[in-house]
Write a structure and sequence with these properties.
The protein is mostly helical. It has 16 helices and no strands. Helix content is 66%, strand content 0%.
Length: 296
Amino acid sequence: MGTGGLTDMNKLLGGLERLPALPATAARAISLLSQGNSSAAEIERIFRADEGLAAATLRRANSASYANGSKRSFGLKESIARLGNRVLMRLALEQQASNTMRDGGKSYGLERGALWRSSLGGAAVAEKLAQESGQADPDLCFSAALLRDIGKLAVDTLSHGERAVSWNSGADRPFVDVERDRFGADHAQIGAFLAEKWSMPQEIVLAVRHHHQPPESPTSWICDIVHCADCIARWAGLGIGDDGMCHPLSPRARDAVGIHRERVEALAAYALEFVNTIERDLQQGAHQHQQQRKSA
């Protein structure tokens, strides 16, 4: 984003009493992990202070895909060293961002939890597409897709209770154009601004900014993948609000990623199953935490 764009965004969001923010644990973890030179001890202190995040880290490091046939269990310190910064950032977002996202999207007519479910479904598809293409880091694509609609959190406040359905004159055009007419910026541009504020890696910032309109030149695999994942999540019925289906799929990105009907059907089903699994795991974790507190 150029200096002029940054100034305009500061002006647009400057009147808000509070910008959307990540929970403190996630914010501290991501700030450290994005620097690349943080010590394992610092990261361990942050992760150990959050039971859910520590448990998720242990599960991932001891899973079949990371344990490499080892029969012993890895502790938190070893798990952090084995997983690496990108996987740890993904876990921090996956575990912590739900509280930030769960109430988002009201101005788009979304029920509570719908934006979070859409974020999760798109993230699962982006990870899958990255794995199958071999052209982008799956964990980075997951994180970028998980955060792609964070701009809608700020739009909820900017709209002052107005529903998005009232912003459009009825013309058949991409909804990001409607948002630009209404606010001077669309939710993808606003989301990229927030991602920078949250100290996200530039690849994630770029993917958030372009998740509805991936750049034509130079092209970016992560942008193409997150864009396609966003469309597939919507076709799966996730996160459909007042903006409906007014976010067209880029033909160039479609061809680059290899999106076709049979693949869409399989990925849409995968997204829904992933969302249901994650929500079930989070509910079980919350219940276990409650039981532990009662017995303490």
